[in-house]
Design goal:
heterotrimer; A alpha/beta (258); B alpha/beta (244); C mainly alpha (712); B: 244 residues; alpha/beta; Rossmann fold; six-stranded mixed beta sheet; four-stranded antiparallel beta sheet; 10 helices; 10 strands; 41% helix; C: 712 residues; ABC transporter involved in vitamin B12 uptake, BtuC; 2% strand; globular
Amino acid sequence: MTSAVAASPARDASSGVPVLQLAAVRAGYGRIDVLHGIDLDLRPGEVFALLGPNGAGKSTTLAVSSGQITPTSGGLFLCGRDVTGVSPDALARAGVCLIPEGRGIFPNLTVAENLRMATYTGRAYHHVLDLAFAQFPRLGERRKQTAGTLSGGEQQMLSMARALATEPAVLLIDELSMGLAPIIVEELYDHVRRIAASGLSILIVEQFAHEILGLADRAGIMLHGRLLHTGPPASIADELADAYLGADHAAPRVDSSQ
Amino acid sequence: MGLLEIEEVSVQFGGLLAVDDASISVPAGCVTGLIGPNGAGKTTLFNVITGLQAPSGGRVVLDDVEVTRRRPYRRARLGIARTFQRLEAFGSLTARENVLVALEMRRRWATARYDCGKIADELLERVGIAHVAETRVEALPTGSARLVELARALATDPKVLLLDEPSSGLDEQETDALGVLLHELTAGGLAVLLVEHDMPLVMEACSYISVLDFGRVIARGTPREIQADPSVQRAYLGTAKAAS
Amino acid sequence: MSQRWSNLLVWAGTIAFVVLVSKTAWAGNPVNGTSLTNLVVLALPLAGIIAMAASGLVVVYTTTGIFNFAQGAIGMFLAYVDWELTVHHGWPQLFVLPLVVLVIAPLLGIGLDRAIMRHLQGKALVVQLSVTVGLMFAFIGLANMLWNQNTAHSMPALFQGEGFHIGQVLLTWHRFITIVVAVALAIGLRILLFQTRIGIAMRAVVDNRDLAALGGARSSVLSSFAWALGCSLAALAGILLAPETADMSTTTLTFLIITAFAAAVVGRLRSLPLTYLGALILALATQWSGSFLRFSERWTNVPDALPTIMLFIVLLLLPRAEIQFARIGQVRRVERVSSVRDAAIGMLALLVFIVVMSMFVLSNTDTTNLSRFALGMCTALVALSLVPLTGWAGQVSLAPLAFAGIGAVAYARLGGAHGSIWAVFLAALVTVPVGALFAFPAMRLQGLYLALATLAFAAMVEEVFYSQPFAIGAGERSVQPVHLLGIDFTSKRAFLILVTVVFGLCGIGIVALRRSAFGRRLVALRDSEAASVTVGVNVLETKLAVFALSAGIAGFAGAFFAMNAGTLNGPTGFEMIAGLPIVLALVIGGVGFVAGALFAGIFGLSLVIIQSDWHISLWIGLTYLAPGLAVLGIIQNPSGAVVPIGEGFARLLPWRHDARRDYEEMTAATAEPEVGGLGLERPFEEADVLLVDRELGISNEVPRAVAAARSG
């Protein structure tokens, strides 16, 4: 489990104040409870990988972290300040940036217009464009193209570029690999590796576990709305197949009638 | 030959091939698993089988009758029932009324006469939610609402039951009960197609499993074969595992 | 039927309709260069005005998701403000026009957004529609109060109607400016939406509202801006239109909006270029009928119906809606479905009340008030027709009174002239197939589009149906109350009691229906169409049944309307605009409840009484204003006023233990956790500090410095 994170985040002084912290968070959609008490802290400059099968609550954890869902109990802290219940646009302006699952783009806007939407956090438009096109030159070539007509990988790049252009303090990435061919996923993760090297704090949710364990500082496995097995990636790897495919469970029943 | 045959079904959304030439056979009397990572096309395939989504190619055959072009309600009357991953219970009706709606529809095409109220109570009892029969479903926790959907699907007296992540929102006890219920149902000759992320449940309950990735069936076999299959591990865990 | 075939059918029908109408109504004017130039020159300014109003609708709808029925009324109101300042106070138009369009209109828009519209996000469609319909009435009412409609108001055209000739046609400067403004607006909106950040953000919201918020765009700023822009466009359209109408009638100016609805629907409520195209086509069609067609006798009113006919056709050409999946929404307030016994007791109490009142409070010679009460009960009966349709099945209909009108005519024609009891049932029977026909567009159209189609239908019935010789024709038709069990209900008191009994029986029937298989199926279909079909529900059959049932009840109610009125005279009493307050009042009362229908009846009754008995000039506008103000109640309580009233009342009944228990559970659930004793009985911890921080709103400003220090 995580180092005991109590209601008072400031006490955990060993590694400085966590950039982002979820304390005993319970949350869900309407009546549907998804998270049953999540304690998670993201330390400055680290990459934390949140792994687990479908429906474990990973995306909900990010939705809480970005303010899209207010926890029913527990709290969300940003740099030690309680931001529980703060609206997603306010959190975005405060430096929390989510790259949502699927494609975090506006399909009917051009590449440049998509980047214009990143100026709400206070950057100048030309600054945003420079930053984005320096990181992803391919986007520069397609600046006037409608985002919906980009390839899946390029859309994901645009989504990342839009996020990075806001110069966030915390980057939340949800299933970057969703529906993309492995070779493109690898390319995208090269970008993530580079971003991580620049010192940004990243909370990343993935199913493709092994892609990400290589670049994460810490990782955790989620199951049934709870966070299990937090620790260095090496210690996590062995637990994964079990969590995903239930390999170590009782021998499967073979129907005798077959 | 399965009771339900999905033959070379493809679904195209704009430029995206959500289901790509998928063939799955669902035999009577056992649970067939359908697993795969997020976005692999499992729910889309369910929508094709129940007629909520028209396929761009392929056939759906139920009991030797092709149903690919039938309206959804016709397929329901032929014996295809399902639950939904994102809850589609009738929220403003009570749990009992949810089941009654299905029973009262079935009474119009079933040959045998029966007492809807009595069967509704039995079904709620069977899935274990009799105590909330008179509660409106939108006031129920997810797990119970899922069981309402299950009872509602069973109320149509189906030949084939499609379950889309039935265990999400259930606690461990309820999940165990679900496993037992699946046993009972298949023992009675029902064909079940199960989409599920709770692997212990899948491995426990299924006789055969098909694995879907990027809309394609990349593996099929018994639970043991699937667990040992490197392409399945790759689909779930990414490329690095296969390389190591 | 496949999409292509049904589209083909609508196109063929449309062309056949246009050809047929053109042929029969051909006025014989020559079609040549001059007359065609004339046509275009007249159509362009009209197209410009329609496009302005429609653009406002589209901008507001795409950005906020709310379809603004009041767009036309806002334009009308602001045109009157402009009239007041220029004509009445003599300020120069050159100063007033920018003042109204650029200052007053945006302020009004922002105010509306802050006070009302923002609270409608995520509410049921019928609630959203009712609020903007109510707003429309409020503006009409306010205008009627401020500017006496018995005296003519006329707004001079810009440049006093001077102009220049194109060929032989005079194009006034006013119309020329209208065209120029419309074109300039098209360019301006294009620049706004594609070049400015706020415009791009408005388009981004259409693509993905949540993502826009994640990027830091404030949705509240965007919606205020959209409403401000929408009101400006409404004002511009209204002010430019006003001089083209003879006396600036509040309703004429308001209902220009129907044509704008059609233009906006051409653009699917999204595309501004298509909206402009739609406006052009509609304007050309309007001028075509004006220049080349002549309608007389039974077809006299067709030109007035033209916008709604066009709206109807455009709606039918929309692509078929997909099967609807349920949305995970907020938990609605848990409402109890009444038992038949409780309904019967309630209806008995109502009957006793009416009997006692008519015996002891009203004298039998006071026919005016007895007749008003009967009208109230008839209104309640019409509202009742929407309870299964809109309240349970979720199909929004704005045409209940049109069906009542058809029923009234059927009664008059099929034996009502001598009070045959069979005529009452025939009236219901005749309206059933008309209503059932609506199930077919309802298979294609969802939500808002269906509501607009019913609105268009109501207007078409008003303009075209009653003037037919087989219906009422030019004169009037008199009817008799029914004879039943040897009683003739010609006495107003007896008639009032009869209508009350009829309403009571129907109400009990409706409650019983909700508890039947059919009632459950309707609610199921509303809650999740996808799940309904997978348990074997035939959607077409179910929609046919509920539309037929609703029309039948309305037709039945229409027969009693006719009896109460004694004579039928054209569309009097059944106008489209008279039907809207019934829908509105039902929504205020509670659209899923029989008691809501009764509320609608009482609401209508009180309006009639207040309007005619309080001879104060201030109340002239009240017919319109009251429904408008009542919408504020909807925002407070979207499931209807009768719910809390009913719950409160039920707790007082000795046998309703369940109601008292529900109440206790609810109050227990909503009780706030105790904050008291902080720092006294338990230590004041850091978590409490943070709590206080949050209460004070300090936490919104998260120090970015931490992040900066880290990277630096």
